[in-house]
Amino acid sequence: MIILGIDPGTTRIGYAIIDKKDADTLVILTYGCLETKNKEQKDRLSEISVFVADLISKYRPEILAIEKLFFTKNAKTAFTVSEARGVIIDRANSQNIRIFDFTPPEVKLAVAGYGKAEKDQVRKMACRILKIEKPPKLDDASDALAIAITACYTIPKLFINK
Predict the structure, then answer these.
(1) Is 101 one of the catalytic residues?
(2) H helices of the chain, where?
(3) Could you tell me the CATH number of the domain that includes residue 123?
(4) Mean pLDDT by 10 residues, the chain (162 residues)
(5) Are the C-beta atoms of 28 and 17 separated by less than 8 Å?
(6) 7 annotated active-site
(7) Is 22 assigned a catalytic role?
(8) Does the reported pTM lie above 0.70?
(9) Catalytic residue among 40, 47, 67, 143
(10) Parent domain of 38
């Protein structure tokens, strides 16, 4: 089962594609970040939409795992990230991809075993789980890996073992 993990944002989107071969085997197909700096919001959203469509077309994921907005001190940031989430979810939904969203504490618990784990702990565990020797430079990419891993570990067996 192919899972697309997304850490949504507007200037940077973290993404990861994982193939869950069986209960014990996760294979990383790709991961990284889309940078959309120095553009108007409407242009960023369009770029995000095309990028996600391309990922879906290339890897054919069956599941989109996306981070749920959990808390933000800046309302403006929350609105723009919500718009990006909407574009991503719409792209996945238009392709009949199952969509699951996870809060940061849910991701931390699934990957590091503690819902208040530090980002670095989650990054290290995600890399250990996926056998990545050199951790991603950007938090967004490691967050996307962790979100995809969370889907692998928490989505009911009914969906995974088809």
Answers:
(1) no
(2) 41-59, 75-94, 104-112, 119-130, 139-154, 157-160
(3) 3.30.420.10
(4) 94 96 90 89 94 98 92 75 95 97 95 93 95 92 97 71 47
(5) yes
(6) yes
(7) no
(8) yes
(9) 67
(10) 2-160
